[in-house]
Amino acid sequence: xxxxxxxxxxxxxxxxxxxxxxxxxxxxxxxxxxxxxxxxxxxxxxxxxxxxxxxxxxxxxxxxxxxxxxxxxxxxxxxxxxxxxxxxxxxxxxxxxxxxxxxxxxxxxxxxxxxxxxxxxxxxxxxxxxxxxxxxxxxxxxxxxxxxxxxxxxxxxxxxxxxxxxxxxxxxxxxxxxxxxxxxxxxxxxxxxxxxxxxxxxxxxxxxxxxxxxxxxxxxxxxxxxxxxxxxxxxxxxxxxxxxxxxxxxxxxxxxxxxxxxxxxxxxxxxxxxxxxxxxxxxxxxxxxxxxxxxxxxxxxxxxxxxxxxxxxxxxxxxxxxxxxxxxxxxxxxxxxxxxxxxxxxxxxxxxxxxxxxxxxxxxxxxxxxxxxxxxxxxxxxxxxxxxxxxxxxxxxxxxxxxxxxxxxxxxxxxxxxxxxxxxxxxxxxxxxxxxxxxxxxxxxxxxxxxxxxxxxxxxxxxxxxxxxxxxxxxxxxxxxxxxxxxxxxxxxxxxxxxxxxxxxxxxxxxxxxxxx
Length: 517
Known about the structure:
By secondary structure, this protein is α/β, with parallel strands linked by helices. It folds into 3 domains: 2-195 and 340-393, FAD/NAD(P)-binding domain, CATH 3.50.50; 231-337, Flavocytochrome C3, Chain A, domain 1, CATH 3.90.700.10; 409-512, Methane Monooxygenase Hydroxylase, Chain G, domain 1 (Up-down Bundle), CATH 1.20.58. Helices cover 34% and strands 16% of the residues. The chain contains 16 helices and 19 strands. Strands 6-2-1-10-17 form a 5-stranded parallel β-sheet, covered by helices on one side. Strand 1, helix 2 and strand 2 (33-37) form a beta-alpha-beta unit. It is globular.
């Protein structure tokens, strides 16, 4: 192992085996790169589970300018317009590139793109593959391409435990595999380990996605932004399975409606109805459930008898639960689906730590703002991977030696954190619930237990939510329900989060008294 690892020294390292990591590695060819994946490729990647597709202006009646307008509207004032414009303009070419890599996108009989409609889009612009299996098909093609690419050294079953930093510069990665810990010297690291759904009880993300990339970056000294903005998908399948199967928004785009257990269509009077932005629909479903009702997606009329053909994945898990969507309403509820916040990056994916880039959900590019427009995430990962790869390749490649490493932290286990965040940082939030979460998470994040990194990420999210005294997009405060006239992105470092948590805990103790975890 030592000889093998030493031979990989000073190559760029990509951490994460989802679409963002795989595409970045492919875009860097023929430069030799190392790709670390904690699990076998695709096994714990949110990309694999994506049903919706990629948003891109591919039709004659569409234009990137319209796509940009929809993106900015959904982002509730927090998108960075310049980067959003650049990304949506590059989206059609990214779809064509994936098709050349072998992704079998859905086509019409005459050969044109079969484009779907999702919430808050003004045009049909969602490119699908195998109906509701877009993520699986994209990952199949990318994994095959990576395994064929001679310049990519793939290390599966290897987990990055910490980034080694000196003078705000990356010097190496401390990783662990079945044989134990080891260090790889490198001055260039791309974090592509996104997703935080594993920090919550109800999520559509793989349970292994609990903010590992954010924890690595925060402990390395990187700045993080907009952590309070978490998208709850309004139509996760309401059953016992965790992670929760997703009933894609495309079903509502095909005409399905939301009803409660007495048959009331409770979104009918809302602007956009079932195709309103996700945060609005999620809150409506949440409130209806809080009133004691169950909630359902009714696809009996639209798409009706065509449901199984159009959505084979959803149809299969519904059938396992004894439900036929052509004749039965589908039970649904909100669940954590996507994180708009992440590592603060520039237009090339560079973080505030020299030699550290981020791509995909782990990054905060400015595209999504406070509320991601449906199907913009896979597209962002594919588009930005090229820019990140170009930036990494254009950076000084001086050999470097990592400093001596101490023993690695234990493997992370977020199970103790899930009920805390689910209670305090759910669809609806308020000050005392957030403060209680901060008080419980603070000592755990400061320790070295298996819950330390998950608690650290949860703590930073909670502090960011506590600081934002308004409601905007995926962040809703019942004690501050109004949206402020002007919007500013939030940013926070690990040191700032810990200091704020300490102060908040002291204020709570003095004003309300000790609350036992």
